[in-house]
TrEMBL record:
GO terms for molecular function: 5-formyltetrahydrofolate cyclo-ligase activity; ATP binding; metal ion binding. ATP binds at residues 3-7, 132-140. Keywords: ATP-binding, Ligase, Magnesium, Metal-binding, Nucleotide-binding. Pfam families: 5-FTHF_cyc-lig (PF01812). Its EC number is 6.3.3.2. Its cofactor is Mg(2+). This is 5-formyltetrahydrofolate cyclo-ligase. It catalyses: (6S)-5-formyl-5,6,7,8-tetrahydrofolate + ATP = (6R)-5,10-methenyltetrahydrofolate + ADP + phosphate. InterPro entries: FTHF_cligase, FTHF_cligase-like_sf, NagB/RpiA_transferase-like.
């Protein structure tokens, strides 16, 4: 299937999940994340979930990062430029939903993309080669172009992989890992 078809299918699959199912799977994903070989790193970028889209609840991973004394980075999106600005998440960070219901920091201490070691990546679907399908705006591909080459990209998904995704472009950045409730896929 192509990206457009996969977007429709996986949005529908997510919407069929109950709150209890998404919470249980999100916790299972966080428990799997613990076994990744990433914990010697310092700066972790994480997305705050869009509840209305039933995205993976990253609160469990946020607790892991806090418990391990890691620097946690969250982003604010500019839909005109498709650029994301990254901020350190602190106790004083104010979070507000934007017009697309994305929880974002109001302001804070800006962190350059080159400082980030690990990025937890939202997605709708992924394939066995590490390609992902997001919402189609290109925010993360643009973000990755400003990161170091060795940044570790970790997708989070309720569902397992497709065999292949049709219509992959040269600029589509592949994941290094994708974590599901059942297993970790390494690419």
């Amino acid at each position: 299937m192509n990206k457009k078809e996969l977007r429709l299918e996986y949005k529908a699959r997510r919407q069929k999940l109950t709150f209890d199912e998404t919470e249980q799977m999100s916790l299972a994903i966080a428990n799997k994340v613990l076994s990744l070989d990433i914990w010697e790193k310092n700066y972790f970028h994480i997305f705050l979930p869009i509840e209305e889209q039933k995205e993976v609840n990253t609160e469990y991973i946020l607790h892991l990062l806090s418990g391990k004394d890691k620097e946690t980075v969250i982003s604010k999106s500019d839909f005109q430029t498709r650029h994301m600005t990254h901020f350190l998440l602190t106790d004083s960070t104010k979070i507000r939903k934007n017009q697309y219901n994305i929880p974002e920091p109001v302001d804070g201490i800006e962190v350059p993309p080159t400082k980030i070691d690990v990025v937890f990546v939202p997605l709708l679907a992924f394939d066995r080669q590490g390609h992902r399908v997001g919402y189609g705006k290109g925010f993360y591909d643009l973000f990755f172009s400003g990161c170091r080459e060795d940044v570790i990209k970790v997708g989070l998904s309720y569902f397992g992989p497709e065999n292949t995704i049709d219509g992959i472009f040269d600029w589509d950045v592949r994941l290094d890992f994708c974590v599901t409730p059942d297993r970790i896929y390494e690419f």
